[in-house]
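User: Predict structure, ligand NAI.
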Amino acid sequence: MKRYQLKIDGQSTDPSSASWFETQNPFTGKTWAEIPKGNAQDVDRAVQAAHRSLTDGPWSEMTASQRGMLLHRLGDLIARDARKLAETEVRDNGKLYAEILGQLNYIPQWYYYFGGLADKIQGTVLPLDKKGYFCFTRNEPIGVVAAITPWNSPLMLAAWKIAPALAAGCTVVIKPSEFTSASTLEFAELFEEAGFPPGVFNVVTGFGQDVGASLVEHPLVRKISFTGSDTTGRIINEQAARHLKHTAMELGGKSPNIIFADADLEQAVFGAVSGIFAATGQTCIAGSRLLVQDSIYDAVVEKLLVIARTAKMGDPMDTGTQVGPVTTQPQYQKVLDYIDIARQDGATLLLGGRAANAAECGKGLFVEPTIFGDVNNGMRIAQEEVFGPVLSIIRFKDEAEALVIANDVRFGLAAAVWTSDIARAFRMTEKLQAGTVWVNTYRAVSFMAPFGGYKDSGLGRENGIDAIREFMQVKSTWINIGAATGNPFVMR
Ligand code: NAI
Ligand code: MG
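Assistant: Predicted complex:
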């Protein structure tokens, strides 16, 4: 069995605990590797290394252009190793190979984009209102960044943090999810080959309560960039607040996918499927509430059932598979529990609703694609994030009602509108409370488009030009070029 090591200060190293925990393949149910069980001591070693390279040594002396070059090389190496990294992820996470390879082929773009951006961040000379001073701003790295990532798309969500953080000149310690740590540890091997000095990028694996919490508490960590559940996000944000640290929080969602009667129904139904059954529903932007206008309700349900009923479950490595296993045992249980809750609350089960145990599912953690109809937006199944292949369909009569239902939830990560009426599309995009709004499409993301949550879905934005500034702090610099000394007891 493969046994991994931590990556600290450029070295592959055993955890101080000298203990490892097992990680499973959710399709076969078998343990396939051992992950180092990091602790506070390992976190301290990693943060000290990150802090040393931030303040001293080659990284701290590099120009922004040189940092950009390294990020480009890293992107090339990810592209070279995309297949290998994708295979590791399928083994550990159960994600479809087709989907994860697509992600791996796309991830280099984050390193190219932010690598290119590194030397385009300029300060400003200020037209000061006081005579005798030259005043300008400088953008400096915010410090050591702790990145904490979830299990659903480990390397992509890590890229959203690492690429802008390194472009800004920060150094990073990352703690991947305990369920899917292997890909991040393999990815860490590429940094030395790309030419990064030791200590710029460190990986400490382990559990949230030890490694995660120690990172958040460590005095030399200045920013915590977190993606995960809103429950954990709140805990981290509270701890971070006590130490006055910066945070970025990418949390969950309960996103409305809204189909109007004037929409292209074929396309809209495809969008509904990609919103909830792609990635087995384990995405923060899942379109888990399908809002359908009264007059087309039956037609949409019928089309949706045809596709969902025949969605092929099975081996995630198989290119014909459309729905893979749920990634973790607790998540599998949570999905099944929510199906029971929806039933008890009176939602009408239209499809699925059980663990799937067809022969092609093997010993995997499969849940049948599940659809509930005539859901009331007040039900728990419409208000709480399931993070699995479970769709709630809700009826509405007109635009005004669609908006009320869409926004009547504590989350605000994404929303989509399907319509052929351009004016309606604009009205809806303006009023929907979500960080990302799609019209006649679903689940599109890019390194160029800011991504993040309204309301309980998070704080801060990832991706897009401004993301690099989330890892920088501004210094105003004043130079006296002839201002009078004046009265020292009065403010200048
Ligand atoms: P989680 O919140 O349980 O764990 C996320 C990470 O936080 C893991 O690495 C975990 O070990 C760590 N952690 C747990 N407790 C901690 C603590 N006390 N201190 C520091 N770190 C701690 O989330 P999970 O279950 O791994 O991921 C699924 C969740 O992530 C879903 O709710 C989903 O909506 C959300 N998510 C959000 C995305 C977004 O961009 N908004 C994208 C992907 C997932
Ligand atoms: Mg695993």
